[in-house]
Design brief:
It is built from 21 helices and 31 strands. Helices cover 30% and strands 26% of the residues. The structure holds zinc ion.
């Protein structure tokens, strides 16, 4: 029995001492009980219950299903009247266990209908500066009417189907309920007036070039698209207000697009009639490009594109595309396009990296666009899975940054004389990396963008950072003088500090629907990307993180994951408990601020101080033999005297010396550590987020030692924790988070001693920033 009491006592002695514990309890004793707000509490309340569709491991369950929507479309571009019309047949396969009585179809173009409510939810007031075109369209013109004109909705026998349009959603009544496993085909005939995407900052539309009278079209959300039906949302028919992107089922697309005969066109899918639409020269160059792994081959030259600009052919040409297992379809067309391609080997397969750009994009585009596409496919394939499609296209469109399967639009335009700033160059390489990267998130790992912006933007921005760093290493000649690495503007922890440390009235948790999130870019792109980067660099390490991230990618490739599927998989594959991390970073707006509250120095003494006496009294009550106890007294306290500074700790304590002599041989004593300096370091945490404490100790001889205390150190005290350190060398300074890897918002409390170390730390911060 005595033994067990002794163990009990040594346990509480280690965990802070009986005395200290009782004191703090008295001070913080709550007046009433409180609910469990422990930051390490498991996320059972926040997560949905695992089921047959989605398992507790984060993988698809045995009853996981997803719907399929296959499309056959004929689309005609009227370039002169900027009109797009189409006739599509959708074949919808109900793979759910449910009986459906109606289908929901998305009419995204109705965001631009004359009576659209989208502009009416903007409450930001007047803009002190606007472009002239925007000014005219906002204040001087009737609203542009770019909504869908739905001409007919019919079944395969040609009978009209009852349908109801509620703004951007259309409900189509099924003549008979669609049972599990059944298919239903129907057709929609439509047209709409194409918008100038520079006037209304749209994701789709045209740019008009007044100097030559041509347009370059980037066309998307252009056809009525099936909504997602699944086990999580039922029908995802949340309206398209303009910001939250899209939720789309996978399917196969057969699309014939008729455009002026002198146009160049590319889009989602395989070009099925290349021989009809390519000239002989283009075909030859295309064959060359398929074998060119180190540089792009020009398919349509700038001179050819400039000649074509003058054509304005009245003839038409039909480009036939076929895409398998894609969630959407986009295309670009113009007679202004220069076209280049190169091959990239991914997992033993040849993929085409492709760029289309008007002469206005050169010389920047011919130099870097296709190379950036190729680098992106390589980096993302390494971080997730081998890119499964046969090509990836980057299209130059002014002020655009938007993604679709196999194709995306990107900004980055040089001045008229061909010169460009670093900002334009890095902006272009960054946006191409980002938009091509979207092929992985959300085009293949098909999350619900309408609900969770961070699942595609955040994950994508995180991998974008990895790919940009790869690009800088692969093409150092692309970097400006003075830049050793690619200057990514999102990813590293320190870059999210101004946001996370900012005004809490305008910060929302990452787990917020994009439409309702303050500071959209920081909320849905920057913070989740940084959180993942911190997980990889600081919490999990590359091996565990990369394995788990790839596992998530493989599990949900060509499927529809939810946030929990991601959170669960990252834990399931790594054995790292991350509930505290997801809770803090994704479900709250807490910030990181960890500091050093105080550092006390202690010396070994032959007799206890008053505090020690009181502790001894307590032990004695439990019959503990206290005769061989060793005592520490604080420097500068009543019981401290100057002679202690230079005395040997073993000589200073009779009990310690005797214990060593009685229990160790001389040889053993030689191998034992002989600490001379004893410190108690108290770390405090003004910020709400729990994070590891990364402490760097610098000794009098200039050497340093780094210690990382896991985040769990905060589990029993959310405000401050102390560590006692025994050291053979004198510690002269301590810095918390020396590499600025935790996004600590206030570094003024990160160093000890405060005054001396602060200036060095500032210097270091400046160095990291540059
Ligand atoms: Zn994006």
């Amino acid at each position: 029995m005595k033994k067990s009491i002794f163990y009990f006592l040594s346990f509480i002695l280690i965990s802070g001492g009986i005395f200290a514990q009782e004191q703090s309890q008295d001070q913080t004793k709550p007046k009433t009980g409180h609910t469990n707000n422990n930051k390490f509490k498991q996320l059972y309340d926040e997560f949905s219950t695992p089921n047959m569709f989605r398992t507790a491991s984060g993988a698809p369950g045995p009853a996981y299903y997803q719907q399929q929507a296959d499309y056959k479309m004929d689309v005609v571009l009227d370039d002169e009247n900027t009109k797009l019309s189409g006739n599509e047949t959708i074949t919808y396969t109900n793979k759910s266990p449910d009986v459906l009585t109606y289908l929901w179809v998305q009419l995204d173009q109705n965001k631009r209908a004359k009576d659209s409510k989208s502009p009416l939810i903007e409450g930001e007031g007047y803009r002190p500066a606007t472009s002239a075109s925007n000014f005219v369209s906002t204040y001087m013109k009737e609203p542009f009417d770019g909504g869908f004109n739905i001409l007919e909705v019919k079944d395969t026998k040609g009978s009209d189907l009852a349908h109801t349009i509620n703004r951007t959603m259309m409900r189509v009544e099924l003549p008979v309920p669609l049972k599990s496993g059944e298919q239903f085909s129907f057709s929609i005939k439509w047209w709409y007036k194409i918008n100038d995407h520079l006037v209304d900052r749209a994701r789709s539309g045209y740019e008009y070039f007044p100097e030559d009278g041509n347009r370059a079209y980037v066309i998307a959300q252009f056809y009525p698209r099936m909504a997602v039906y699944n086990d999580v949302e039922g029908w995802q028919n949340s309206q398209f207000w303009g910001r939250d992107e899209f939720a789309l089922p996978f399917g196969n697309f057969e699309v014939n697009i008729t455009v002026p005969a002198d146009h160049i066109l590319d889009g989602t899918g395989k070009l099925m009639n290349r021989k009809e639409v390519f000239s002989k020269t283009m075909l030859q160059r295309y064959e060359e490009a398929k074998k060119s792994y180190d540089k792009p081959v020009i398919i349509v030259t700038q001179a050819e594109a400039e000649a074509a600009e003058k054509g304005f052919s009245k003839e038409t040409k039909t480009w036939k595309m076929y895409a398998e297992n894609v969630r959407d379809f986009g295309f670009t067309t113009s007679r202004k396009f220069i076209w280049d391609m190169m091959a990239v080997k991914i997992g033993g397969k040849d993929i085409m990296a492709v760029s289309l750009y008007p002469k206005e994009g050169n010389p920047l585009w011919e130099q870097w666009s296709t190379r950036t596409v190729a680098n992106t496919l390589e980096s993302y394939s390494r971080m997730t899975f081998d890119y499964p499609y046969h090509k990836a296209i980057s299209v130059h469109a002014k002020q655009q940054g938007m993604e679709y399967p196999m194709i995306c639009w990107n900004y980055g335009r040089p001045e008229k004389d061909g010169t460009y700033s670093d900002r334009v160059k890095y902006g272009m390489i960054g946006v191409i990396t980002h938009e091509v990267g979207h092929n992985f998130f959300p085009m293949i790992i098909n999350s619900d963008e309408r609900q969770w912006t961070w699942m595609d933007e955040g994950l994508n921005t995180f991998v974008q950072y990895v790919a940009e760093q790869d690009f800088g290493k692969k093409y150092p000649e692309a970097l400006s003088p003075g830049h050793k690495n690619y200057p990514s503007d999102r990813g590293p922890a320190r870059m999210i500090v101004p946001y996370m440390g900012g005004n809490q009235d305008f910060i929302a948790p990452i787990m917020t629907k994009g439409l309702n999130a303050y500071q959209f870019g920081n909320n849905a792109y920057g913070k989740p990307a940084t959180a993942l980067n911190i997980l990889r660099e600081t919490i999990m390490g590359h091996d565990l993180f990369d394995y788990s991230f790839r596992e998530y990618a493989h599990r949900w490739m060509f499927k529809h994951p939810t946030p929990e599927d991601f959170f669960r998989t990252m834990e399931d594959a790594s054995a790292v408990d991350l509930d505290w991390f997801w809770r803090g970073w994704f479900y709250t707006t807490d910030w990181v601020d960890i500091g050093i509250k105080e550092v006390k120095k202690y010396y070994v003494s032959s007799k206890p101080n008053a505090e020690g006496e009181r502790l001894l009294e307590r032990y004695k009550r439990f019959n503990v033999n206290t005769q061989d106890f060793v005592y520490l007294v604080e420097e500068g306290s009543e019981d401290f005297d100057e002679s202690m500074r230079n005395s040997d700790p073993v000589e200073a304590s009779k009990s310690l010396k005797e214990y060593l002599m009685d229990n160790f041989t001389e040889a053993e004593r030689k191998n034992i550590k002989s600490p001379k300096y004893f410190y108690s370091v108290t770390f405090n945490k003004p910020g709400g987020l729990v994070m590891p404490i990364i402490a760097e100790y610098t000794y009098a001889d200039g050497t340093t030692k780094r210690e990382t205390y896991p985040a769990q150190i905060w589990r029993l005290n959310d405000n401050e924790v102390s560590r006692t350190i025994a050291s053979e060398k004198e510690i002269v300074s301590i810095v918390v988070d020396p590499d600025l890897e935790t996004a600590d918002v206030d570094t003024s409390n990160n160093s000890w001693p405060k005054e001396i170390k602060q200036s060095d730390f500032d210097k270091f911060k400046d160095k990291v920033k540059n």
